[in-house]
Amino acid sequence: MLRLLGLLITVLTAIAVAIVTWPQFFRLERTFPMAQVVSLRPITVIVLAAVCVLFLFLSLARPVRAFAGSIAVITLIGAIAGGGILLSRGVGPGGLPDATGTSVRVMTWNTAGGAADADVIARTAVAMQADIVSLPETTEEVGIAVAVAMRALGSPMWVHNENYEGWDANWTSLLISPGLGDYAVVESTVEGTTNTSEVPSVVAMPVDGNGPVVVAVHAVAPRQAYMADWRRDLQWLADQCAADSVIMAGDFNATLDNMARLGVGGADLGRCHDGAAATGTGGVGTWSTSVPSLLGTPIDHVMATAGWVATGSAVLTSLDGSGSDHRPLVVQLEPSP
Q1: Could you tell me which residues are beta bridge partners of residue 176?
Q2: How many other CB atoms sit within 10 Å of the CB of residue 104?
Q3: Looking at residue 192, what is its pLDDT?
Q4: CA–CA separation, 311 and 220 (whole Å)
């Protein structure tokens, strides 16, 4: 009887480890609570490794050696698989190559309802030589203050924004360098039919038709009560990545795991590819600043369609004390050959 119970527990453990390691196989990556669990992949790897060590010690006892050894092997495989996925997306410090005459630097930073100071945002964007700055949870007033400060530092920007009624987090601001041309914001609605559902995104189109469509992203967080809205937001964002030249940046409130099966033709979301994952920082956590970046969750992204190639990226950890609970992400893009 005990042997059968041990076998049952072993089988259930194997299934559980498979689900938390690769919920995409079971089509659970956007269901509660697996959507939240898989976004905490670094923590999952640590927990599985700790369980493995515990059961290795238990396997020293002869009566439970086979059972404990089986659990140790299963959790070891899960930890190795999860760690391998993180390494494949990149957990290095990253870096940005020298800007060229054709490169576009994109920075995204969720400022937590304006918690980050406008001067800090501006100095960071100028230091990063950003041509596009996506600022979820940033009001029009703060967005203008950032642009004014950037102009004083020699980097003028046009300011665009969207807002829903409510507090500061219901704003998203988008700054675009005049060097990319004139842009106009596509009209949206608060029903989410032409925008994200609970918090707004900004879709900016080049007035003359030349240049990329630029989307400043803010999807609703996948809280239990908002799971349906979150799934709709991700699908809406995937639909925005349909043109040949699209650049999306912002707080997607989703990891690459959550985006599984939303990509087209091998892309990550719609026809967009993740710039950080392509350049070695896709596994570095941009949220929350309360934990080390290698334990955090990469929910802020810079994505682009095949008209662009990512050549470098960096998650800025030096600003963890700036007030925001997100880290800035910068990606350099070059037009595809």
Answers
A1: 132, 158
A2: 23
A3: 55
A4: 29
Give the CA distances from residue 160 to residues 49, 51, 164, 308, in Å, rounded to whole numbers and listed in that order. 46, 50, 14, 23
pTM equals 0.94
User: Tell me: the pLDDT tens digits for 146-159?
Assistant: 999 999 999 999 99
How many C-beta atoms surround the C-beta of residue 9 within 10 A? 13
8 A C-beta contact, residue 180 and residue 165: no
Extract the runs of DSSP E, i.e. beta strands, from 266-325: 273-274, 300-304, 308-315
Residue 153 in contact with residue 122, Cβ under 8 Å?
yes
Tell me if 160 sits within 8 A of 146, measured CB to CB. Answer: no
pLDDT above 90 (res 194): no
Q: Which of 296, 252, 287, 297 is nearest to 270 (CA)?
A: 252
Q: Report d(CA 181, CA 204) in Å as an integer.
A: 11
Query: Could you tell me the pLDDT band of residue 243, with boundaries at 50, 70 and 90?
Result: confident
N-terminal to C-terminal alpha carbon distance within the chain: 66
Q: What whole-number distance in Å separates Cα of residue 10 and Cα of residue 84?
A: 23
Q: Using CA of residue 199, residue 169, residue 177, residue 248, what is the dihedral sign?
A: negative
Mean pLDDT of 69-78: 96
